[in-house]
Each structure stands twice: as structure tokens, then as C-alpha cells.
Amino acid sequence: MPKAARNVLRSRWSVSSALYGLGRENSLANHSTRRAKRKRRVVERYTSEAFLPYVKAIGQLALTWNDLHETLGSLFCTIADDITEMKLHAVWHSANTDRAKRAMLEAVVRDLSWQEKKNNPRAEKDLDWLLRELNKLEDIRNNAIHAPLKSFDDPVWRVFEKRPEGIAPNDLHGNRRALQMMNKDLLKEYRYCRNASLILREFADAIQYAWGYTEIDPSWPERPQLPNRGQKNGRPNPRRPRGQGQLPLLPES
Fold first, then answer.
1. Residues near 152 by Cβ (< 8 Å), separated by ≥ 6?
2. Three-class SS state of 36
3. CA gap 239, 42 in Å, rounded
4. What's residue 241's pLDDT?
5. Reported pTM
6. Side-chain half-sphere of 46: how many Cα atoms within 13 Å?
7. What is the spatial distance between Cα 110 and Cα 104, in angstroms, rounded to a whole number?
8. 51: DSSP letter
9. 106 Cβ partners below 8 Å, 6+ apart?
């Protein structure tokens, strides 16, 4: 190749390399600028005053739901009393989910003896009703407990997302539970589920008493009426053993 041609090629290569290097530097600079402009996500600590009613309501709901299933465990042990109570409690707590525990209770209810049905004629239907209502309530409870919440007080949310100010389900990433709670009064949902859990717990406890003391007190508790959404109280709790007062539902606040 002639010397002049080689010089031309070297010149073109130098220009191309320089342009490539300049373009790469600009690309890296732009990428660095974009990274620098990207803000870190604000991590919510849920300690602000605005969150306090929600934290309190969710906590009460969680505690009530847990105690309801402890009561169901005692009822399970009372009905399935062929082996020692502690062994039955061990069987009950071996289940990893609340639904699996209720399935065990349902299994012993389906296998009631002729004598048990004679002693407690309404037992099978009332226990079936109790379990069906719990299965319906569970999805409401799961939405209430597991839906993430977010404060939308920053004005930017009203500019770009048209969000009202305040605490709301965080559906920004498509959370299924949050989507189920959209456009609902959150505190009313929490309190409804909490109060329904209290009523069902009292009914389960009253059934356990009636089952264990049939010979002393043959009365059977009345099936309760659950509260409607937004309704403070349902029918008074099932009849309790003499000497024990009715447990009031928790206040709205």
C-alpha cells in the first residue's frame, strides 16, 4: 500500500477513535447524571401521627384473629376428646395456616357420634355456620392485614397521580391486597373484621362451654348476628355461663 494511502487510513482511524471515545464518554456522563438525579425511595417507618389509628386498628384485628383461633383450638380439643388434651393441642398447632386448623375442626364436626348429636342437636349446623363465616371473613382479614399502606401527603401525588391527601393502600406496584382495599374506608374495614372476629370467638367459646357442661347446663348458645359493614354492633354476644358478663366490642377509636 502506498505511503500516502496508509497516512489517510491512519488519519481516518484516529478521527473515528476520537469520535467513538467522545461518544462513549458522553454516554457514561449522561448515565452518571441520570443516576445522580434518581432519588432514593423514601422508606416509611409508620411512626407518624397520621398512621397511629391504622396501626392501632390493624394491631387489634391481628390480636383478635389470633385469639379467635386459640379458642377454636380449645373447641377442637373439647370435641375430639378421645386422646389427652395436650396431645390434641399439639396436633392443632402442627398446622401452619389458620385455614388448615379450621379444616381439622371441620373434620371432627363431620364425624360426630350419634350420642353427641343427641346431646347437642344444633351442634352440627351451628359449627358448620361458624366455619363458613370464618372462611368468608378470612379473605377480608387477609386484605386488611397484608395490604401495604402509604402516606400520600406529598403534593406531588395530587399533581401527577390525582391522589387525595392522607393514608391509603399502596397499589403503586400492583399489590393484589392493596387493590382489594382501594376506595374503602380502611378503619371501618379493620373494625368490622375485628368486631366480627370478637363475635365469632365468643360464639365458639360459648359452644365449647355448652359442649363440656351439657349435663350441668344443657342450654345451647344462640347463633349471633354479625355486624354489617360500618355497623358498630351486631346482636349481643351468645349467652355466657352464669356469673360471666358479656364482653363488649372494642370502641371505634
1. 158, 161, 163, 164, 165, 166, 167, 168
2. helix
3. 51
4. 41
5. 0.68
6. 10
7. 10
8. G
9. 128, 131
Measured from the Cβ of residue 117, the count of other Cβ atoms closer than 10 Å reads 12
Q: Packing angle between helix 98-110 and helix 52-79, nearest 10 degrees?
A: 30
State residue 14's pLDDT score.
Answer: 54
Rounded distance, CA 55 to CA 47, Å?
A: 9
pLDDT of residue 55: 92
198 pLDDT above the threshold of 70: yes
Q: Tell which wins on pLDDT, 245 or 229.
A: 229
- What is the CB neighbour count within 10 angstroms for residue 172? 13
Grade residue 22 by pLDDT with cuts at 50, 70 and 90: very low
Cα dihedral 42, 48, 50, 53 in deg (nearest 10)? 120
CB atoms within 10 A of CB 181: 23
Task: Show Cβ contacts of residue 228 under 8 Å, excluding neighbours closer than 6 positions.
Answer: none
What span, in angstroms and rounded, lies between the C-alpha atoms of 245 and 43? Answer: 45
Question: For the chain, what is the mean pLDDT?
Answer: 78
Distance CA 246, CA 228 (A): 20
Cα 144-41-59 angle, rounded to 5 deg: 25
Amino acid occupying residue 182: M
Q: Is the Cβ–Cβ distance between 131 and 106 less than 8 Å?
A: yes
Answer whether residue 57 shows pLDDT above 90.
yes
User: How do beta strands 149-151 and 167-169 pair?
Assistant: antiparallel
Residue-wise pLDDT for 73-98, tens only, equals 989 888 887 667 778 888 888 889 99
